[in-house]
Write a structure and sequence with these properties.
By secondary structure, this protein is an alpha/beta fold. It folds into three domains: about 150 residues, Alpha-D-Glucose-1,6-Bisphosphate, Chain A, domain 3 (3-Layer(aba) Sandwich), CATH 3.40.120.10; about 220 residues, Alpha-D-Glucose-1,6-Bisphosphate, subunit A, domain 3 (Alpha-D-Glucose-1,6-Bisphosphate, Chain A, domain 3, 3-Layer(aba) Sandwich), CATH 3.40.120.10; about 80 residues, TATA-Binding Protein, CATH 3.30.310. Helices cover about 35% and strands about 25% of the residues. The chain is built from 14 helices and 23 strands. The strands form four sheets. Strands 1, 2, 3, 4, 5, 6 and 7 form a seven-stranded mixed β-sheet that branches. Strands 18, 19, 20, 21, 22 and 23 form a six-stranded antiparallel β-sheet that branches. Strands 9-8-10-11-12 form a five-stranded mixed β-sheet, sandwiched between helices. Strand 11 and strand 12 form a beta hairpin. The longest helix is centred in the N-terminal third of the chain and has 15 residues. It starts with 13 loop residues before the first strand and ends with a helix.
Length: about 450
């Protein structure tokens, strides 16, 4: 039987096990379906360092060209490099990556020209269904004149564009430890921040795990998990570095640790970059998802900006940014979105803003970060439950009649209290899990609210 695409086509991308779910045949069918559904006849295709990437990219190109599209084969790419190609060349894009997932996985992220996202509600469901029909025996679309594949290297153009957006040439010298996690940061960091292709910057880069290796021999390429930044934290402290940066597998996310090896929260980075962007574009809108710190909209307002609260997920934040012409957007997961990067997310550009903020003055990364931290957060807490929606309603009922409490249903359930505490409880898109995020003005307030909600969720 043909693989069932509904099992591994997710809300925003395709992600599954190589061999049993993802095969060249599946990717060829998706390539043909993508052209048929979108009508786009120009595509760029790239892949990360996973072993299956080149074969999958070639298979997608076969399906796409047979359906009449021309394909730019970009070869090795970070996800934000692929967005750069889609934006600068005005072509649709297909990026083969499973981001931070383990070695046995691969996946596919697609976008329209100008890096506009393709998710289930913007074409991915139709592509899935068309590809499934092809796999089940329906003839694949064949153009009278097939397209062709052209190979092109975009690394230098990408590096030059990034340096154009954030000029680091005049900052004070900084020592920076970068953990690429054997992912695509090992390919892009030397080009953008080093002297591999462009003039040297005043940066002394200490490279950790820059060898491209899709088996991830040192640690998972997911810096959101504390265990995966232990080596970075230790190296920063050992070497007296000014800060540390950690990229995930496809390098679309970047995490920061200060000179003491302490993680800087993505909310603090969001607020920091927001103030920098607002200094250049006064009065602009800034997007933040609803589980970033309450400090973010406060700081944006104080800086003269217009904060916009969105659902969690890149397709939602990108849509709001485009509708409202927002200059910048940030998520709790360290995805950072920029208007001057086609409203797409890029870990590299976020890292460059942090380096500029530290290097333009004489303050440390921790001093800067502390400016943007006002509350105590729980971090995301997952609970396995049989009926997520029923548990959400139980929590809603608990607080429905409470004085001084407001609730909303933008994404799951959010409850907010007069003392500044708030909690969000939302179901996972893919698992029987509830995800809880809590924030309070002090540890005691946060812990009390966290424990009260978990008692309901886990009983």
């Amino acid at each position: 039987m043909a693989p069932q695409l509904s099992e591994f086509v997710k809300a925003y991308d395709v992600r599954g096990l190589v061999g049993s779910q993802l095969t060249p045949e599946v990717m060829e069918a998706i390539g043909a379906a993508a052209v048929a559904v979108t009508g786009e006849l120009k595509w760029a295709v790239g892949h990360d360092m996973r072993d299956s990437g080149p074969d999958f990219a070639a298979a997608f190109a076969r399906g796409a060209t047979a359906a009449g599209a021309s394909v730019l084969d970009a070869g090795l790419c970070s996800t934000d490099m692929l967005y750069f190609i889609a934006g600068s060349r005005d072509v649709a894009g297909a990026m083969f990556t499973a981001s931070h997932n383990p070695a046995e996985y691969n996946g596919l992220k697609m976008c329209l020209p100008a890096a506009r996202p393709i998710g289930l509600d913007t074409g991915l469901a139709d592509i899935r269904d068309k590809a499934q029909a092809i796999l089940d025996g329906e003839p694949a679309p064949v153009a009278e004149t097939p397209g062709a594949v052209a190979r092109e290297d975009f690394l230098a153009a990408y590096a030059d564009y990034m340096r154009h957006l954030v000029d680091l040439s005049g900052i004070r010298p900084l020592k920076v430890v970068v953990d690429a996690g054997n992912g695509m940061g090992g390919y892009t960091v030397p080009a953008v921040l080093g002297d591999q292709l462009l003039a040297a910057l005043p940066l002394d880069i200490d490279e950790l795990y820059f060898e491209l290796d899709g088996t991830f021999p040192n640690h998972e390429a997911n810096p959101l998990e504390p265990a995966n930044i232990v080596d970075l934290q230790a190296r920063v402290k050992e070497t007296g570095a000014d800060l540390g940066l950690a990229f995930d597998g496809d390098a679309d996310r970047c995490f920061v640790v200060d000179a003491d090896g302490e993680p800087v929260t993505p909310s603090a980075i969001t607020a920091l970059i927001a103030t920098r962007e607002l200094a250049k574009h006064p009065g602009s809108a800034i997007c933040h998802n609803l589980i970033t710190s309450k400090a973010v909209p406060e700081i944006v307002t104080e800086a003269g900006g217009r904060p916009l609260r969105t659902r969690v997920g890149h397709s939602y934040i990108k849509a709001v940014m485009a509708e409202e012409d927002a200059i910048f957007g940030g998520e709790h997961s360290a995805h950072y979105y920029f208007k001057d990067f086609w409203f797409a997310d890029t870990g590299m550009l976020a890292a460059m803003h942090v380096l500029a903020a530290v290097g333009e003055g004489d303050r440390s990364a921790s001093d800067l970060a502390n400016e943007f931290v006002r509350y105590v957060a729980s971090g995301e807490i997952n609970s396995k439950v049989t009926d997520p929606n029923a548990k959400i309603e139980e929590v809603a009922a608990q607080y429905a009649a409470s004085e001084g409490v407001t609730t909303d249903r933008l994404d799951g359930l959010t409850v907010a209290f007069n003392d500044g505490s708030w909690a969000n409880l939302r179901p996972s898109n893919t698992e029987p899990l509830l995800r809880l995020n809590v924030e309070g003005p002090d540890p005691a307030s946060m812990e009390r609210l966290r424990d009260d909600i978990l008692r309901i969720v886990r009983n």
